[in-house]
Amino acid sequence: MSHPVRAARRYVQRDHASIVSGIDACADAVAEPWDTARTTDADAVADGLHRALEETGILESLPGVLAGAVDATGHELRARPVAGPPYVVVTSRGPVLRATIDPGRLVIRFDAFEVVRDSEPGHPPAYRRRDGVELAVSIE
Asked: Helix H segments across 37-101?
């Protein structure tokens, strides 16, 4: 793990623990009505999570998290991030923050759901709520 990756991860964990726990609560709210432990409706997961993050104000906070993480790496953003693509995207796994910096693209993923693939051909992937939110930071 490179120094910028460690710096960004520490920054998010230290300064934005409430954002991580808020994402966790939003993901719980999305999964709560499911009648099983998983769903195959990726759009419902992503759209439901996007809506919950928007309603709680977390979505609008994510560009600031990204800007602070970039600052923590010692690099600068080329443009001010916004709560939409390409900087902030809500996927069926969780929010993804992206910024281009000198070493490459800084990617911060908040994985609240995991993809479960069936070994049988033709079965759609399912989405299962993780036990918490897994923070993944990389430079790609």
From this structure: 42-56, 58-73
